[in-house]
Amino acid sequence: MVKNKKDEQLEQFRVDDRNQKMTTNQGVKVSEDEFSLKAGLRGPTLLEDFHFREKMTHFDHERIPERVVHARGFAAHGEFELYESMERYTKASFLCDTSIKTPVFVRFSTVVGSRGSAETVRDVRGFATKFYTQEGNYDLVGNNIPVFFIQDAIKFPDLVHAIKPEPHNEIPQASSAHDTFWDFLVNNQEASHMVMWLMSDRAIPRSFRMMEGFGVHSFRFVNEQGVAHFVKFHWKPLLGAHSLVWDEAQKISGKDPDFHRRDLYDAIEKGDFAEYELGVQILAEEDEFTFDFDVLDATKIWPEEDVPVKLIGKMTLNRNVDNVFAETEQVAFHAGNVVPGIDFTNDPLLQGRLFSYTDTQLIRLGGPNFHELPINRPVCPFNNNQRDGYGRMTINKGPVSYHKNSLADNTPATSSAEEGGFEHYQEKIEGRKIRNRSDSFRDHFSQATLFWNSMSDAEKTHITDAFIFEVGKVKSQSVKQQVVDTIANINVDLAKVIADSIGTKPPTGNGSDVTKASPALSQENMVKKPNTRKVGVIASRAGDMNELQNTVQELKEAMLNVEIISDKLGSIGELPIDHTFLTTDPVLFDAIFVASMSEDKKFKKESDRYVMEAFNHFKAIGASSSATAILVGKEGSPGVVNSGEGTAFVDAVTAHRHWTREV
Fold first, then answer.
1. Percent of the chain topping pLDDT 70
2. Which residue from 112, 205, 393, 420 lies 20 to 30 Å from 524 (Cα-Cα)?
3. Which of 4, 137, 143, 376 is labelled catalytic?
């Protein structure tokens, strides 16, 4: 693999301890690492044992505070390539020069759960990208959902307090299905649009590789002439955006709580690199007030049918981290890390984030020098008069650490805009100091209804079931009733179904008269590919070896990942058996194919379980001509292929799910 500039920079920090002599952190060779220094064989340990004290002290301090939100994360390295120059809109060099390959580091995460929580919970997913550009680091810190719960950052602590485990019993972990979250929702109705996304399939993605990303906020592009445009950022996965089903997500949390990180790690190790196209929605400043929503409101989308997404480049994640702690845990993102050509807007949620991130890193990473950690260092030089502090790595030479000065010829010197110096966009500001928000931020339901109108029948069913599950967990009858009455402002029929299921009075609202829909919001309209889909092939060790080999070969040629499952480990001919029925589970596969059966009763029982589980989760199921008996009762159902014809099965896998079984 060709190394990029960030890889080369990190090389000096990588250490392989194999075949090396043990030393202390000061480089002193260690003669004994099993026994502490004692006063006699059975005497007390001596304080002068510097090796023991260093080893134990380091161990005592190995854990840094986990993130308050986005604690459970996984990351990978990669690179970004530009399709066409965007110099008409921005002077950011990495978005103007198509010959540049920009190193990137991307961290995916859940928001609510602790570091030890499961990965397939219903939650928002973080999608944070650090671009190591030649002009400095640019961080696009977003989510897999394009809107957020609140409009002003001052309410962020309240939101997190409400959605986190309730403080009196620390329950439930990594879940919004409890009283305080829904109490927050009904009393802060600006969250109504976001909660529709949270109850949708978007909140239980199939994979990080099959998940959209969004910058959420409206930012600014500024070109060389100083002309600005509003911009929103999108990441579009080349595999399409696809999700789990709720029952499946819950079972995976038990079977493999590391499901998403394992999927990304294994895919990169196999060479199935995760790929995303960067899209931008661009809006001229004179069009700021032409819509029925405020373009600076983080609880609103810009519908793609109104403001098209222009695809401008591709990001490829092609290398796993060498050390999760040193890279994934110590990486410090900040929405305020921008480069010339990208600037902020007055979105009040974004404005608050510009303070919060630095403040967070100071406590998490032990002081002001977190930018010097290898994963956070820019690939371009950095020079300033900042000095000292916890964890300082730079050894600054010379007596001068202030500006202006004569002893160092007034260096480091500032740069003009022509020399690449960052200059903030000179937006005209008028107004009085006030604690309030614009009336244009006060519509909380129209886009929530737009989202509902845009869903397929299957997606609407899943949203309905999610509401019934989540609100059904709420103990307060008052809060449950308030939820129903709030949802009635989005869709009264949806509210009636929820009310009937959770034991509240019918809604009092009149519903919404919004009829507009945005087809781009439905995952059913996303691209569908078989590539890297994981197929579990059940095979008897006494089955037809040639038929199995042909099946596996055919599936692999269709870009599917195949893993063989049997009753015992070993091999079938030259094909190794990857799993037994006990070491894996049907929920961990995108499809099940039965290549051959055994007369053993336990084998049949387990095979039936795998097929039935896949059938209940609307996945593709196939069987060879010798194993079609396993499909009895399911013949003719969508996505069930009752012959060894690989093409039909591959087509069924490509469809992702066969929702008409649900109807």
1. 99
2. 112
3. 143
Kindly report the CATH number that applies to the domain delimited by 528-661. Answer: 3.40.50.880
Cα 36 from Cα 46, distance rounded (Å) = 8
> According to the model, what pLDDT value does residue 646 have?
61
User: At 507, phi and psi to the nearest 5?
Assistant: -65, 155
* Distance, CA of 353 to CA of 449 (rounded, Å): 28
| Distance separating alpha carbons of residues 582 and 600, to the nearest angstrom | 16
Q: What is the mean pLDDT of the chain?
A: 94
Specify the DSSP class assigned to residue 441. G
Question: Which pairing describes strands 73-82 and 101-110: parallel, antiparallel, or unpaired?
Answer: antiparallel
61 labelled catalytic: no
Residue-wise pLDDT for 47-91, tens only, equals: 899 888 888 888 888 889 999 999 999 999 999 999 999 999 999
CA dist., res. 137 & res. 372, Å (int) = 12
In angstroms, what CA-CA distances link 644 with 594, 603, 625, 640?
Answer: 9, 20, 6, 11
Active site residue: 70, 77, 234, 260, which one? 70
Q: What confidence tens digit (pLDDT) does each residue in 384-427 have? A: 989 999 999 999 999 999 899 999 998 999 999 999 999 999 99
Instruction: Answer whether 73-175+204-372 and 445-524 agree in fold.
Output: no
CB 539 within 8 A of CB 626: no
Q: What residue spans define the domains of the chain? A: 73-175+204-372, 445-524, 528-661
Please name which of 362, 377, 325, 350 lies closest in space to residue 137, comparing C-alpha atoms. Answer: 377
Contact call for residues 155 and 445 (beta carbons, < 8 A): no
Other CB atoms within 10 A of residue 225 CB:
8
- Whether the model pTM is above 0.90: yes
Gap between the Cα atoms of 190 and 192, Å rounded: 6
Write the single-letter amino acid at 61.
H
Examine the pLDDT at 584 and tell me if it is beyond 80: yes
Name the CA dihedral angle for 424, 428, 433, 438, rounded to a multiple of 10 degrees.
-100
* Average pLDDT of the residues in 223-238: 97
Architecture, CATH, for domain 73-175+204-372? Beta Barrel (2.40)
For 445-524, give the CATH class.
mainly alpha
pLDDT digits (tens, 9 = 90+) for 422-475: 999 999 888 888 888 899 999 999 999 999 999 999 999 999 999 999 999 999
| Dihedral, CA of residue 11, residue 13, residue 15 and residue 21, to nearest 10 | 130
